[in-house]
Amino acid sequence: MVEISADAVVVGGGLGGVAAALALLRAGRTVILTEEYDWLGGQLTSQAVPPDEHSWVERFGVTASYRALREGIRRYYRDHYPLTERSRAWRELNPGAGHVSRLCHEPRVAVAVIEAMLAPYRGSGRLRVLQPYRPVGAEVDGDRVRAVRLEHRDGGGEVTAVAPYVLDATETGELLPLTGTEYVTGFESQGDTGEPSAPAEAQPTNMQAVSVCFAIDHVDGDHIIDRPGSYEFWRGYQPDFWGDRLLSWRCPHPRTLEIVERSFTPNPDDDPLLVEADQRLNPGDANLWTFRRIAARRNFTDGAYASDITLVNWPMIDYLEGPVIDVPDADRHLAGARELSRSVLYWLQTEAPRPDGGTGFPGLRLRGDVTGGGDDGLAQAPYIRESRRIRALYTVAEQDLSLAVRGDKGAVNYADSVGVGMYRIDLHPSTGGDNYIDVASSPFEIPLGALVPQRMTNLLPASKNIGTTHITNGAYRLHPVEWNVGEAAGALAAFCLDNATTPHAVRGDEGLLAAFQHRLARDGVELRWPQVTGY
């Protein structure tokens, strides 16, 4: 077996993993970065989820390196795409003019920008990327992880990666059980957390739905896929709280739980520059076509795009039949989620009600080339909303950021803040039969204590596996927060190596903490919010 070493091993190449690696590399450290899928970038790329971001993202509330990623995406479009002159001059260019975010774009562009950000460190030899590799084991000595054993996804052998620091940036916290790190899953009880929205008893297998996203456009011709084998099951599937079949335009409104009907109009002749993508004012999901649109054809010169391209991450693809973490039939559920998504596509093409009274949109074309998908044309990876979460020195609870609880006081200020974030507490329906939980939030901080395991000394979470609860994960799971978490974890590992100290000591010593926060601020990590009100 091959053994390699570096200052840090970052397992998982999603947004948190990339940010963690960049922070370590900027600090002069050597890094091994691993990723299971063909693209780096996680939810932004292989999972095909356009960014979900807060209302102030163009001005403040994200790290400098995350802003560089966003501006790099816009620059890539200006450099390489046939934009109209009007769109090219649009300072806050939104290539897809989607309503979910001020920057909706094709996943492959983010891949190109991420690769460019990492390229100098690959060239210098300080970064080694193992791809596609996944963790299958670990060597642990007491409270320390000595090494991680990695297996090539396609049967290309194993590698053991050794480092003083190991960062778990996987989508599901895969290193936590492999290293014996204490963690929780699913719903904590109200007795454990004191959260207003928590149940009376803990429900460790009750987790948010996973979704397998896909991209479509709408062009002339018949592009109907083969009828999925489980189509009849999904065609008749109706959760108790849904108000109709899952495969319909009707579903609960996340914020009110009122049953509402959404519209679907492919290729509306709208002006991209007039789209107001601000979830504080409007969730933007009334017309599902424009909700997560990633290419608005009117942003490009005539004839460049025959159609808009939209990303299907809609309520009807949420898979509720079972969790995919710490269960023996996880692979069956992941396969079921993919079958659901293909069934949704087939329903859209053949049976979905049209505004003109007809049914089906046979001109909808699956764009697997846009998502880099495999034989089924869907996204490479499932969108995992909820991970295993470490038992941390501090666990962020609903009452720390809920607008209903905090009111005009704003979210709790943490003395050990290592970043900021903002998103509503947005929980999708769960495998335990729960409806949406959608709670207004105050702009919040990220406490260092949530990144430090109670016991392990050199393993750090760098993704959605930090010390949040099932409920607060709904606010901390989005793109800019995951990036900030990863960046803080990478910077913490580098700081500890530079100062021959430990994460526990940094959190517990005022001088070390101040020095670490100074380094974060120097590198463009915002630690506090200005006076803004949540939503």
Automatic annotation (TrEMBL):
Residues annotated as transmembrane: none
Gene3D superfamilies for this protein: FAD/NAD(P)-binding domain
Molecular function terms, GO-annotated: oxidoreductase activity
Keyword Kinase assigned: no
Record keyword Oxidoreductase present: yes
EC class of the enzyme, as a word: oxidoreductase
Keywords: Oxidoreductase
EC number per UniProt: 1.-.-.-
Entry-linked Pfam families: FAD_oxidored
Annotated protein name in UniProt: FAD-dependent oxidoreductase
Organism whose genome encodes this protein: Streptosporangium amethystogenes subsp. fukuiense
